[in-house]
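2024-03-11 09:14:02 INFO worker-7 job=invfold-0412 stage=load source=structure_tokens
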């Protein structure tokens, strides 16, 4: 459960939002409301509290986009909701399918005509949806196409949740089992939205998704990592490492100049201890830059600090964004060298997973999500 302080903040923001909607005569965006917020809204329009659970079920389980289809609500209430509220935050523009892996990329448009992407990755025993939290990204990581987009704005909780709902609807009977916040943007720079959407995904009334199947990925915002630990959600946390050396990490990830690896390691240790979970380090392999024996030693030393594992990721081309500077010079570590690197880490008793490239033929692989903005 979320902390009382966090829940109170949600309620306060909701009240501000509702007042703003009344002032501007715009429809209220119910998609993205938590159960508590739906309860507050129902009470505010003179409806009993239990109506919120019915709305929650229709919106997040039945994936309903039309109030008139909510048959256990009275006709009067359905009319009231239809006049004053909105249930669609995104429009699905196109889908692309990878013929080699079955990966699907979804292009969505927001109400203000921005474009974002999500990716559905099918695997043998699960199906993982990679969702976005921002339009673009402000962090400018040199190996990531999204950073080359620039940044427009944060997504709302409704826009984050709608990526899952619209994808699930499009996917039909093929169930989505896992969600990873690893698409466009830095989730912890859109903290309230990330928290709210994760609360909805993991709520006991939401069918089929548990906290153990939700992963939030971050490039490293230490105070927000600690705040996430204190929220009570206990979702899995993935940290974009990519180098265990401060100087090189700052070159490829400018955020490291503001929030050092040392600060982040302390926050990750706090998260691991507070939530009793293992941290995942994400590590993109860059030829002759972070694939040396010295890197193995530095990673080994880091992994000894708290329970962790490494996800080794082959570097995927970002040439579709016409990069310049260091981004244009990056090359992937040859696969046999990746395996050598992995073997050395494993010989030091480190759990290592090698993430297979999926969807690179449709620019949907890790680090490739981007939409060229006007």
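2024-03-11 09:14:09 INFO worker-7 stage=emit residues=374
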């Amino acid at each position: 459960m979320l902390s009382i302080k966090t829940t109170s903040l949600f309620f306060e923001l909701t009240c501000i939002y509702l007042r703003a909607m009344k002032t501007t005569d715009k429809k209220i965006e119910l998609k993205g409301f938590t159960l508590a917020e739906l309860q507050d809204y129902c009470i505010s329009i003179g409806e009993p509290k239990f109506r919120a659970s019915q709305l929650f079920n229709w919106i997040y389980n039945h994936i309903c986009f039309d109030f008139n289809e909510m048959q256990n609500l009275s006709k009067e209430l359905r009319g009231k909701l239809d006049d004053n509220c909105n249930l669609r935050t995104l429009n699905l523009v196109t889908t692309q399918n990878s013929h080699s892996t079955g990966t699907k990329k979804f292009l969505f448009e927001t109400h203000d005509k921005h474009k974002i992407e999500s990716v559905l990755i099918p695997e043998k025993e699960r199906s993982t949806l990679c969702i976005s939290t921002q339009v673009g990204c402000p962090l400018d990581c040199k190996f990531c196409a999204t950073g080359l987009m620039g940044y427009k704005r944060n997504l709302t909780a409704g826009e984050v949740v709608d990526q899952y709902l619209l994808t699930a609807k499009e996917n039909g009977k093929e169930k989505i089992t896992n969600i990873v916040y690893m698409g466009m943007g830095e989730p912890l720079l859109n903290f309230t939205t990330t928290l709210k959407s994760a609360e909805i995904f993991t709520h006991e009334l939401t069918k089929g998704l548990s906290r153990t199947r939700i992963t939030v990925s971050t490039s490293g915002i230490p105070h927000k990592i600690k705040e996430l630990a204190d929220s009570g959600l206990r979702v899995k946390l993935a940290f974009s490492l990519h180098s265990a050396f401060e100087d090189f990490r700052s070159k490829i990830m400018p955020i490291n100049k503001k929030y050092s690896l040392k600060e982040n390691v302390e926050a990750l240790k706090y998260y691991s201890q507070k939530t009793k979970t293992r941290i995942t380090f994400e590590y993109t392999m860059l030829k002759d830059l972070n694939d040396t024996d010295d890197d193995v030693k530095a990673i080994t030393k880091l992994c000894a600090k708290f329970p962790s594992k490494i996800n080794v990721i082959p570097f995927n081309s970002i040439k579709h964004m016409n990069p310049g500077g260091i981004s244009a010079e990056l090359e992937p570590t040859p696969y046999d060298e990746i395996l050598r690197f992995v073997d050395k880490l494993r010989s030091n008793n480190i759990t290592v997973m090698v993430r297979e490239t999926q969807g690179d033929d449709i620019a949907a692989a890790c680090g490739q999500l981007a939409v060229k903005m006007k």
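2024-03-11 09:14:09 INFO worker-7 stage=report msg="The longest strand covers residues 90-97."
2024-03-11 09:14:10 INFO worker-7 job finished
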